[in-house]
Amino acid sequence: MKTESSVRRVVVLNQYAMPASVGGGTRHVELFGRLKGWQYRIVAGDRDHASQRPHSFQDPHFRLVHVSGYRGNDHRRVISFATYCLGAVVATLREPRPDVVYASSPHLLAPVAGWLAARLRGSKFVLEIRDLWPQSMVDTGYLRENSLLHRALRALELWLYRRADRIVLVTSAWYSYFRSLGIDEAKLEWVSNSAEPEDFDIQPDLIPLRDRCPVRGRLIVYAGAHGPANGLDLLLDAAAELPEHTFLLIGEGIDKQRLVDRARSEGLANVQFLGMLPKRELAGILGGADIGVHVLNDAAVFRLGLSPNKLYDYLAAGLPVVTNCLGEPSDVLTAADAGFATPGDLTAGLRKLADLDDATLKEMGRRGRRYIQDNRSRTVMSARLQRVLDEVVGRVRPANAEQRGPLEAVGGPR
After folding, report:
1. Alpha-carbon distance 223 to 226, whole Å?
2. Which of 131, 157, 189, 311 is 20 to 30 A from 27 (CA-CA)?
3. Would you tell me which CATH number, out of the four given (1.20.272.10, 3.40.50.2020, 3.40.50.2000, 3.40.50.720), belongs to the domain 197-375?
4. What is the distance of C-alpha 359 from the center of its chain?
5. Across residues 191-195, what is the average pLDDT?
6. Domain extents for the chain?
7. Which is higher by pLDDT, 290 or 137?
8. % helix / strand / coil in the chain, to the nearest 5?
């Protein structure tokens, strides 16, 4: 039996974290919930990122702090970040003293709150990078390079990297970026986004995906954010060229209404939209599609590396996948032999996959699911996170590259 002194505590700061019962960002509850010998509390904002409606869920592993609402990417979003930062520090001070404060980007004020809370509580500070701010803001057109704000955010970025006890990256392709900044590689650890295949078994008590919209031909599904970076106009372009197949877009975002209006105005009768679904519901019906789509607009920051949740969700659900991205998405599909990467021509990849016979598609789906089980499951990645936390508090000696095993074979440290 574990004694109280043998159990370590970690506070996780992520404004947009969600419990597994709700759609959205469930990375942290799924990873930290699998740790051994650790108690965790996730400090999240009290508004849904996509809809901006107040949260109604209650979960003992979550502490919600008030954040101001916003629409779009103006100053009100920055104010929301700031209110979360202040609330997160106060919330951490009210918790029993944590051994580790684990703060996650994308926005940098959450890690600032994490560093401050760790200093005030005498805790270790682990920084998780899920988006390369501010570089991604420059590459997607939200921030002018070398502007005063850009230089200030770049200075803050470097300041945080140098003060973190460890830095967790969702894609190992970023190792070279951090080396270019002079960050000690011994600080870095790869803990990919991931999915647990058993969570994506078809659930008979849920309404099947094919009963939620009229379907003809292949059912091609996109499940994720509907924002400017997500490249969904490319998906509507593909739908226009493949009218014999059905395209279903699931999720929310600031571009959602514009995309709905475009599909209606162009008479794309083969395009259907659903709102965001709770995680369990989406997982329990996703395997009812034929093909999953991962798509992004072309931006320089994505060429540095990415680790897309939806790619792993599709594969865990047994769906073959088409992506328009090179790098890790392409590498994973090649290693799994479970789909195609067609940069520059999403339509060609979808047509190629849709033309395959049912048996071939199902076998591709089985291969993808096996690959996720062995290499990118939540269980596999939680074990990597376990090592990071145990090392940072001195429970185990830091592992060298050889001891870290073969997980880096695809998308691992370079």
Report:
1. 9
2. 157
3. 3.40.50.2000
4. 31
5. 94
6. 4-194+377-404, 197-375
7. 290
8. 45, 15, 40
CATH topology of domain 4-194+377-404: Rossmann fold (3.40.50)
Tokens linked to 404:
């870290």
Nearest to 373 by CA among 189, 223, 170, 198: 198
Cβ within 8 Å of residue 167, ≥6 positions away:
126, 127, 128, 129, 161, 178, 183, 187, 188, 189
Question: At 396, which amino acid appears?
Answer: V
pLDDT one-digit tens code per residue, 218-269: 999 999 999 888 999 999 999 999 999 999 999 998 899 999 999 999 999 9
Q: What is the pLDDT of residues 138-167, one digit of tens each?
A: 776 777 887 888 788 889 999 999 999 999
> What are 190's two structure tokens?
């790869």
With a CB cutoff of 8 Å and minimum separation 6, the contacts of 8 are 37, 38, 39, 99, 100, 389, 393, 395
Please, are residues 110 and 87 in contact by the beta-carbon 8 Å criterion? no
Whether this prediction's pTM lies above 0.70 is answered by: yes
Contact between 132 and 154 under an 8 Å Cβ cutoff? The reply is no
Average pLDDT rounded to a whole number, residues 403-412: 43
Are the C-beta atoms of residues 317 and 208 closer than 8 Å to each other? Answer: no
* φ/ψ bin of 384: left (φ > 0), alpha (ψ from -120 to 50), beta (otherwise): alpha
Per cent of the chain over pLDDT 90 is 70
In terms of Cβ atoms closer than 10 Å to its own Cβ (0-12, 13-18, 19+), residue 409 is exposed
Q: Which has the higher per-residue pLDDT, 48 or 328?
A: 328
Q: Which residues contact 252 (CB under 8 A, 6 or more apart)?
A: 50, 51, 225, 226, 275, 276
Integer-rounded Cα Rg, in Å, for the chain is 21
3-class SS at 350? helix
HEC string of 45-65 equals ECECCCCCCECCCCCCCEEEE
Helices (H) and strands (E) in the chain, counts: 15, 13
